[in-house]
From TrEMBL:
Gene3D superfamilies: Tetracycline Repressor, domain 2. It comes from the Bacteria. The keyword Acetylation does not apply. Residues 35-54 bind DNA. One of its GO terms (molecular function) is DNA binding. Residues 12-72 form the HTH tetR-type domain. Keywords: DNA-binding. This is HTH tetR-type domain-containing protein. The keyword Electron transport does not apply.
């Protein structure tokens, strides 16, 4: 039993090392320029070890996006959903820029970002139903189909994440403020409809 746990921990560590090696390379290099060999060199693993964990570099990139989402969006930290997204974007700016579809010929990680944001919003909503000050929570509580509203919001937020690399910090803040404004308006409309 103890040996099985140790093997699982080693496996998990190796997988994380590969993912973090990819993240390190993405600080300076676009995804299409990255090779499996380069990831292996930074992770200090052989190619056969890499392929034991990932089918290809695209699968490793998807795992990296999931890892970053769990670390920066879904772990319990203070802040409203959009504040978490803003922190996620600023903390992972180079990685997002180098995974950005506009920098690629073949790779498009929009779907992975969308799934990550949807999952973060869903988990946040489920864990914070009693939070009164978050307009997203209030809007989702009023929605007849919260899961569809989450998909709608996640689409807008994901587009903002992908597009944020073409904007300066002021424009990023304006985009987030715009989304907050729209959410507040939708939440206010929902409340006034309930009052009628």
């Amino acid at each position: 039993m103890g040996e099985k746990l140790m093997n699982e921990q080693k496996r998990s560590r190796t997988q994380r090392d590969i993912i973090l090696a990819l993240a390190e390379i993405l600080q300076t290099t676009t995804f299409e320029q990255i090779t499996v060999q380069a990831i292996c060199e930074v992770a200090l693993v052989t190619r056969s070890t890499f392929y034991r964990y990932f089918e290809d570099k695209y699968a490793a990139a998807e795992a990296l996006i999931e890892y970053l989402g769990m670390r920066d969006l879904m772990d319990p930290v203070d802040g409203l959903v959009l504040e978490r997204v803003q922190r996620f974007v600023s903390r992972n700016e180079a990685i997002i820029r180098h995974l950005n579809p506009s920098n690629q010929q073949r790779a498009n990680f929009h779907v992975e970002f969308l799934r990550m944001v949807e999952r973060a919003m869903t988990l946040f909503y489920e864990a914070n139903q009693t939070v009164e000050c978050d307009p997203i929570i209030q809007m989702l509580k009023q929605a007849t189909q919260p899961e569809l509203m989450i998909k709608f919001l996640a689409g807008g937020v994901t587009s903002m994440i992908i597009d944020s690399q073409h904007r300066d910090e002021t424009q990023q803040a304006q985009a987030i403020n715009f989304i907050v404004e729209i959410i507040n308006q939708l939440a206010d409309r929902g409340e006034s409809n309930h009052d009628d």
